[in-house]
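Format notes (please read before filing issues)

Several people have asked whether sequences and structure tokens are stored in separate files. They are not. Every record keeps both together, in the order shown below: the sequence lines, then the token lines. Line labels are part of the format and must not be stripped during preprocessing.
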Amino acid sequence: MKRWTVINGVPLDSQARRIAVEQTPSPAVGRSRKGRGVLLRRSGEPVHEWDTGCWYPVGDASGYEMGHLRFTLRGAILRGRWALVRMSGRGPVLRPPWLLIFTAP
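Then the structure lines:
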């Protein structure tokens, strides 16, 4: 599973573009017991579940490796179609930034 940080929130307008950065996976992320919050093992930071649901690739799912992935979200909060497009950078980058683009409701 991949985790992403989206700078300035998820775009809900087809003209808006947001930078999305892939995060390293965390094995401690999950549901808590008895209403206690979940903490990351390494840093002790709290983890908040913002939305739950499913995503479905649109077209070729191998587009992620090529730097362009289209997908549909069906979550409790977010619904619609988005695209992730990898930005080209200069030199080797550990986790290159991507653009998150809203394409259709």
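For reference, the curators noted about this record: Helices lie at 63-66. The two ends are 24 Å apart (CA to CA).
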